[in-house]
Amino acid sequence: MFRVFSRSHKNADQLVRTITKQRFYCNKSVEPATKTSSTVSEEQNHSVHRRMYSVTNFDKKVLVWVGRYKTTDEIPPTVPVETIERARNKGRIKFCNYMIVGTIVGCIFMAWSGKQAAKRGESLHQMNLDWHKAVKEGKA
């Protein structure tokens, strides 16, 4: 089967070499191929055709908050869409984690506050009875 493929394909040897290099990429004896001028121009061409996004002030704050840039002055006017999406996702995750921590702290505080009120003898039932007594007397 390989002979049929090698006869029909002009660069079969080159194809086999690239496949074996890709398979054994963890092998330190294999050195990475150097970039030729054609690959550099292809990378430049690829970067030109990337989807760009014009950055708003909020996006700048998010990019700085998630650590993509150190200051808002470093951020270019247009950024790839992938960068914005990753920054927003990281920002969402960070915000949700802060909300989780805030909720846990709030629950602990409310439980502590309720226990303190119970020690003082305050209860919702007693507050309701006092309010009804005040309404009957005409104070409320």
Automatic annotation (TrEMBL):
The keyword Transmembrane helix applies. It is a single-pass membrane protein. Pfam families: DUF1075. The keyword Transmembrane helix applies. It comes from Apolygus lucorum (Small green plant bug). It comes from the Eukaryota. GO terms for cellular component: membrane. PANTHER family: GROWTH AND TRANSFORMATION-DEPENDENT PROTEIN, UPF0389 PROTEIN CG9231. It is found in: Membrane. Belongs to the UPF0389 family. This is Uncharacterized protein. Its main location: membrane. Keywords: Membrane, Transmembrane, Transmembrane helix.
